[in-house]
Specification:
Elements: H1 9-12, H2 34-46, H3 48-61, H4 65-75, H5 85-99, H6 107-118, H7 122-125, E1 126-129, E2 135-136, E3 140-147, E4 152-158, H8 162-171, H9 173-181, H10 190-203, H11 206-219, E5 226-227, E6 240-244, E7 248-249, H12 251-254, H13 259-273, H14 275-280, E8 282-284, E9 292-295, E10 300-302, E11 308-310, H15 313-327, H16 331-341, H17 352-363, E12 372-373, H18 376-387, H19 404-423, E13 426-427, H20 429-437, H21 445-456
Parallel strand pairs: 5-10
Antiparallel strand pairs: 1-3, 2-3, 3-4, 4-6, 7-9, 8-11, 9-10, 12-13
Helix pairs in contact: 2-18, 3-5, 3-9, 4-5, 13-19, 15-16, 16-17, 17-18, 18-19
Length: 457
């Protein structure tokens, strides 16, 4: 029987975890948890080369409006306490520069987009239309309106010219690659950049997104705690997406709720963003706090389906096999799986122990069978380690070659981790995940409710 991977300082230092210290992985020494690696990541960020690369990155992305918005949104999950204090203010400014690339457009400009796509006045489509946006999407604005039949709807409208801006950005990926290659080589692979290109193009097509949202809304219809507002494909165009309006509380307000409620919402977020992949082979590649709303009835609504992806069954099974091997400490099996799949080259300077340690360093939060409260620092450490193995002792993993079909599922994992870190949510994430990784019965109230719903369907 394989030696069990021990829990670590991540668990011992969490609010909910209580485990004994001092256990080790056989022949591998004491593991360093996400918390323990924070100092290593700080040291890496403190290097002058990284600070200089951040300057260079902002310079390049400053002229790449569409891409900068998405990357700025992704980087916004990072906990800036990881950055050494001497550099924190400057690093904050650089990240803010990326996040603030969203264009501004008057309602008259957005009205022209709507009326151009519909080919008729806005009053013929909507009985009422509030000119003040209720939310900002990554490439557009969201408005509240009412149809002539009395239904309240959300109307997402693309910024004028954003499609041309993103397509121009994609043509400049050579420069983008050059900047990132010196800092985070695993983010500059041709496969990832090609996947980014395909996904950005897909996100510009609101008609496609409306069809996806309609399908996912049907998939979760009647769910006890997950709500997906249905889209209206018949009223959606290439640049205008119309869907049911969901009256909900924003993520900022959710973060102010009592711990028990935040834990409940965190479990729901985990079940939707991660569970969807393993149960239905579909997942959102863009988990983000702005896409989460809490309804008055306690259900959590998820919006924005521009980066919703499907994965073939065989690839989902590969990921589940890797999770089981890591959970059970079967380092040789995990290594063999990754070599066979082409993630690690057989002649790379990577050992089975390093492979297992790397997986745990990045995903320990849902591999150990303990209750863990996720902090922003933990989320940032795991995210930075995953995208830049050189920030730790895992230098051999910098040559990993994650196949394109897995790139965005990993992105979904880390961004979900980041959302849970901002929420400061606690749970036994591993025990929840065993429902879809091992096919085991639910151990939480939410899991039991979901089981009943699935059985009734």
């Amino acid at each position: 029987m394989a030696d069990k991977v021990p829990t670590s300082r991540l668990v011992r230092g969490s609010k909910l975890g209580q485990v004994a210290a001092g256990r080790v992985i056989r022949n591998a020494g004491t593991r360093v948890s996400m918390i323990g690696r924070s100092d290593q990541v700080r040291a890496r960020i403190a290097e002058n080369s990284v600070i200089a690369a951040a300057d260079q990155l902002v310079t390049v992305l400053g002229s790449m409006k569409g891409v900068a918005m998405k990357l700025g949104q992704m980087l916004s999950i990072l906990d800036l306490d990881l950055v050494p204090e001497d550099h924190r203010e400057e690093f904050q400014r650089k990240l803010a520069a990326l996040r603030d690339q969203a264009p501004t457009a008057s309602f008259e400009a957005m009205r022209r987009v709507i009326e151009t796509d519909y080919g008729r006045p806005i009053s013929e489509v909507f009985a009422e239309f509030d000119p003040e946006p209720v939310a900002a999407a990554s490439i557009g604005q969201v408005y509240r309106a009412r149809l002539h039949d009395g239904r309240d709807v959300a109307v997402k409208v693309q910024y004028p010219g954003i499609d041309a801006a993103i397509r121009a950005d994609m043509k400049n990926l050579t420069m983008f690659l050059k900047v990132w290659k010196s800092t985070v080589p695993t983010l500059s692979t041709p496969a990832l950049l090609n996947e980014l290109r395909l996904n950005f193009e897909g996100e510009l097509d609101y008609e496609r997104e409306a069809r996806t949202q309609h399908r996912i809304a049907g998939l979760y219809a009647g769910h006890p705690f997950i709500a997906v507002p249905d889209s209206l494909p018949e009223l959606s165009t290439r640049r205008v997406l119309v869907s049911e309006f969901f009256e909900g509380t924003s993520f900022t307000t959710i973060c102010e709720l009592p711990q028990e409620e935040r834990n409940r919402i965190g479990e729901i977020i985990f079940r939707f963003y991660i569970g969807s992949l393993y149960r239905y082979h579909e997942f959102c590649g863009d988990p983000h706090p702005g896409n989460v709303l809490l309804g008055r009835d306690g259900r959590v609504a998820f919006v924005d389906f521009g980066l919703f992806n499907s994965m073939d069954v065989e690839h989902v099974e590969f990921e589940k096999s890797c999770l089981r091997a890591a959970t059970e400490g079967r380092r040789d099996d995990l290594y063999a799986l990754m070599v066979r799949r082409g993630v690690i080259s057989a002649d790379a300077d990577v050992t089975p122990d390093e492979c297992l340690e790397y997986v745990y360093a990045a995903a320990e939060w849902n591999l150990v069978d303990e209750e863990i409260a996720i902090t922003p620092e933990m989320a940032s450490t795991g995210f930075l380690l995953a995208i830049d193995p050189r920030a730790s002792e895992f230098s051999g993993m910098k040559s990993q070659n994650l196949p394109p079909e897995h790139l965005f599922s990993r992105r979904a994992d880390f961004l979900t981790f980041g959302v849970l870190g901002q929420l400061d949510a606690g749970a036994n994430w591993h025990r929840i995940g065993r429902e879809w990784v091992y096919g085991e019965p639910a151990t939480t109230e939410l899991g039991a409710a979901e089981e009943r719903w699935r059985a009734e369907r």
